[in-house]
Structure formats: C-alpha cells, structure tokens
Amino acid sequence: MPTAVLRALRRNHAAKVAVGVIVLVVFVGLFAPLISPHDPNLQNLELKLRPPFWMSGSEPGYLLGTDKLGRDVLSRIMYGTRVSLLVGLAATVLSGVVGAVIGVVSGYYRGWREQVFMRLADVQLAFPSILLALAIIAVLGPSLFFMILVLGLTGWVSYARVVRAEVLSLREREFVTAARAIGDTGPQIMVRHLVPNIVAPLATIGTLQVAAMIVAEASLSYLGLGVPPSVPTWGSLLADGQLYLRSAWWIAVFSGAAIMMTTLAINVTGDLLRDVADPKAYTR
User: Which key words are in the record (predicted)?
Assistant: First the structure.
C-alpha cells in the first residue's frame, strides 16, 4: 500500500501540492508557539484594524493585519491551526473506532445485532449531524473535549456502513471458514482476520472525514458553540470578521482561506488514497 501511494503521488501533481499544504499546516500547528510573531490574545487598541503589510496604513510586524482588538491575525490563524487539527484528527479517530467496531460486529454476527445497529444508523442519518452537534453542545456548553466527543459520536455511521459491507463479503471467504474450522472464536476471527482487511477503506474514509470535522469545528466556533472564546480558532476569526467585511476584509478572508486550503488539500489526498485502494480506479 505505501509503495502504491508513492507511485500514485509521483503521477498526480495536484496531490503533490495537496500533501505539501498538509505538511505545512501540520508544521504550523505543531510549532505555532515557536514561530508565531505575537501572542494571539495580546490586545493593543491603538493598532486595531490595521491592514496587511502591502497596504497603506499597515503596521510593521503584523503581516496579515490586526483585528478589532489589535490582535495579530497571522498569529491567531497559526494558533487556530492547532485547534482545527486536534479536533479533526481526534474526532475522526473516535468516530472511526466506534464505526469500525459496530460495522465488524454487525457484519460478522448479523441477526439482531445488525438490525439494532443499522436501524440506529438510519435514525441518526435522519438528523443532520451538524444540527445534532449544535443541540448537544448548546446544552453541554462550549468545550474542546465536548466538541471532540460530540463530533466523534455523530460521525460513526459512514464507517459502520462501509465496514459492514466489507465484512459481509469477507466472512464468506475461505480464510474465515478455515479459521472457524480450527476453532477460532468470533472475536478472534474479527481481530485476526477481518480488522486487518478493513484498514485500507478505513484510512480512505478517515482522510476525507478529517476535512469534514475541520469544517464542522469551524462552523460550531463561528456560531460561538465551539471552544471557549479565549481560544483562537478559524471559525471564531470568521465570526469576528463578518462585521468588518468592507473595512477590514482580511480578518475573515485569511481565516476562510486557511479553512478552504486545508480541507481542499485533505480531500485531494483522500481522493488519491481512494484511487489506490480501489483496483478498478487505479492500476497497480
């Protein structure tokens, strides 16, 4: 699989750019405290709404300008990267684990377990995930932990459905029949034989899910239901900049560009992984 990914990456120039953007975003997120030019929460009302460095009236040292409280926009975007990556990755891992367990159990045992879990998935699909997350966080209150928990527990359905379909096919294969014949129990078969064969589709779905979680986090932060207001996020920057689109457009535009570039890069990379994992779409 890694060799196939590298071969596909050499052929796909858009994916090369996307991977480069992801590496840059991860680097900024990890080292934001070391490379950010200013404290993201440091206020200076004398410097409020200063434009980016190439415009007249800009302030030296504030490359992307300042917001309504004189805080450095570039530093707030850098620190917002950390929140977006943490929420995106943690919520994706949580939803992937929950969905994979439910999918494997439903596909292997079938019967009443499959009926219960799949009907539960149907019920959850009847409610838009973002509205369900809004309702829960509105009750629990803004918190990074609650946001990860809610987004993770509302995103398991796509994993469960794909994994269940894979397991339904795998459970009839010869190696599973042989494992039953030598006395392996259901949990042993699931862990030793089924889980290793669903890693590729899980990785593909997970890559695309990270982008969806980042957008969901930005949406909740934009509405004031994400992390506490003292924590800079891309969504809160968008919310701060919406009132100044005419006079201080850079507050919303640069944070929106960060969301767009990151999610686009992740989606392009996810498409690459999907093509590699699908033998009909990718020729090895």
Answer: Cell membrane, Membrane, Transmembrane, Transmembrane helix, Transport
